[in-house]
């Protein structure tokens, strides 16, 4: 098993719980000032709001600690990703998360954390091309679509 898959499975267990469902009615916006939401259609607005609420519910309040270096890297990346989200933009069900994250050695892990959170949120995980951007607007990761059940 590839190391990032194992990390993703651990993260999925940490962020257990599905979010969106299939109701297309508009959902309330996340609390003001937390994450900017950008969308034109009601369906895209719902995806963005539901992802923002999912992150609010499931992101850790602080970095968990572990003696296992792989787990500690994952815990740290999760905290960095969650704290770094500045905006969620959705166009045609495709999510782009803007962040204040800096590119670096942990970018691959940050990208994998992002993809696991999108899949876990269950808001648009069968749509390919969800993208995480760094502070300069450069791509950190584009997720593949989760396979249909």
What is the fold's blueprint, element by element?
Layout: H1 3-14, E1 36-39, H2 42-58, H3 69-84, E2 85-91, E3 94-99, H4 107-121, E4 131-133, E5 139-142
Parallel strand pairs: 1-2, 3-4
Antiparallel strand pairs: 2-3, 4-5
Helix pairs in contact: 1-4, 3-4
Radius of gyration: 14 Å
Query: Which residues sit in consecutive blocks of at least 5 with pLDDT less than 50?
Result: 1-10, 12-22, 25-33
- Per DSSP E runs of 2 or more residues, the count of β-strands stands at 5
> In oligomeric terms, what are we looking at?
single chain
Strand percentage lies at: 15-25%
Form type: globular
| Helix content range | 40-55%
Overall tally of structural domains: 1
Q: Output the helix-strand order.
A: HEHHEEHEE
Q: Count every helix, treating DSSP H or I runs of 4 or more residues as helices.
A: 4
Distance N to C terminus: 21 Å
Chain-averaged pLDDT: 80
Largest sheet composition: 5 strands, mixed
What topology, given as strand order, has the largest sheet?
1-2-3-4-5
Secondary structure class reads: alpha/beta
Structure description:
This protein is of the alpha/beta class and 149 residues long. It has one domain. Helices cover 40% and strands 16% of the residues. It has 4 helices and 5 strands; from the N terminus they run H-E-H-H-E-E-H-E-E. It has helices spanning 3-14, 42-58, 69-84, 107-121, and strands at 36-39, 85-91, 94-99, 131-133, 139-142. The chain has a 5-stranded mixed β-sheet with strand order 1-2-3-4-5. The longest helix is centred in the middle third of the chain and has 17 residues, at 42-58. The chain is globular, with a radius of gyration of 14 Å. The chain starts with a helix and ends in a 7-residue tail after the last strand. 34% of the residues are buried.
């Amino acid at each position: 098993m590839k190391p990032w898959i194992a990390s993703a499975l651990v993260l999925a267990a940490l962020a257990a719980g599905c979010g969106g469902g299939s109701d297309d009615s508009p959902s309330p916006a996340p609390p003001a000032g937390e994450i900017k939401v950008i969308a034109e259609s009601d369906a895209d607005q719902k995806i963005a709001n539901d992802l923002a609420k999912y992150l609010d519910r499931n992101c850790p309040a602080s970095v968990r600690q572990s003696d296992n270096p792989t787990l500690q890297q994952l815990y740290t990346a999760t905290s960095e990703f969650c704290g770094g989200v500045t905006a969620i933009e959705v166009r045609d069900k495709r999510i782009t998360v803007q962040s204040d994250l800096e590119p670096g050695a942990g970018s691959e892990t940050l990208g994998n954390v992002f993809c696991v959170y999108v899949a876990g949120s269950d808001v648009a995980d069968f749509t390919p091309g969800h993208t995480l951007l760094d502070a300069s607007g450069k791509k950190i990761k584009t997720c593949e679509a989760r396979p249909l059940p």
